[in-house]
Amino acid sequence: MKRTPSKSGPKGASRHTYNVLMIAPTSFFADYGCHVRILEEVRILQKLGNQVTVCTYFMGRDIPGLDIRRTLPIPWRTHYEVGSSRHKVVFDVLLSLRTLQVALQVKPDIVHGHLHEGALIGSVVGKLLKAPLVFDFQGSLTAEMIDHRFLTRGGRWHRWLRRLEDRIVRLPPAIITSSQHAADLLRNEFHCAPDKISIIPDCVNSDSFAPRESQAGGPSESNASREALASLRASLGIPPERQVVVYLGLLAEWQGTGLLLEAAKRVLTHRSDVQFLIMGYPSVEAYRARASALGLDSHVVFTGKIPYEQVPSFLALGNVAVAPKVSATEGSGKLTNYMSMGLPTVAFDVPVSHEYLNDAGVYARAGDAASLAESLEQVLSDRARAQELGSRLRQRAVERYSWTTAGARIMDVYDHVTQNRRPTADR
Fold first, then answer.
1. Which pTM does this prediction carry?
2. What string of DSSP letters covers 251-317?
3. Looking at residue 142, what is its pLDDT?
């Protein structure tokens, strides 16, 4: 193995660094969800002295400083894939071939597979090169496919894919997951040994994602920051007297986008001083038409995709954040962004939301648009409570959800699986 001791690590400790082959079975980088987790993991691993090579699909945005190796395209599917699709089978075959090719070139010490497809590909490549696999588990494969309405619960394909999922989670010697809920799922439904599971939550860069009053260092910069935010607000057509509810993420029914529009309609029947800023993609035109049919044209702004680097500026326009995701098994990385921005956050009452927000969150009944509207109105109507909740969430994000801490814990997992593979005296 090509592990070398790094000169420094967390709290000054010396540790080994690794040559990591990361498998991302998606169109990385695409400014949402799991892509942000992959990006920030790569960045912190590089900061800790590791070499990281990312194998991914042919589409996606290149990020400076990252070694990204892409598959060949397929001529009949040349646009982004979001969610489940039958075309992913072909993408994953091409990704398998590309990953093996790259692995033979870089000879990794660790194979780090994201999502189930990444773990399956990584298990084969890892065995061929005698490199241990770490599986970055971000939710149940079959549950996600049901949420995306790609699979019917209890059907023939569901049973077959569930068996495949059960096999995949048994392949790696170590699994990283983003929440206690996901860890419980692995233990209780897939019977994974607890000692192979490490909970490393989605984290946030609290310097970049900071409350409006913290984004500038001095009076002149504060004035410039306020002017920039006012200009951005005006460019989006948001009247200055309105409070802004912000949403960031994919636009889809399983993300709760339709429920959010229904809730907006209910809120706006009681008050006219609210603007909904909905940031994300795909299906922007479909949801814009839906908002129009509900009579929301003058109170809802759809931005489409927002580059990750610009997200803090757009979130800084918000008075309240909303997370209407209805999936009970997937993570919710947007919550740490909201928290770090000091935004009071309304979410559906699902386990992952509680895990991140704790008692500083405001919860609506899962899947209930009327309850979501009521919760939003409560926060919008009580400025003092909103400010207090936002401050508590900011403090929680800074103290508990640092990528520096997460990076050290990933390195602990790497140390563990390489020690299990071949105990050596050079640690």
1. 0.85
2. -SGGGTHHHHHHHHHHHHHH-SSEEEEEE--SSHHHHHHHHHHTT-GGGEEEEE---GGGHHHHHTT
3. 56
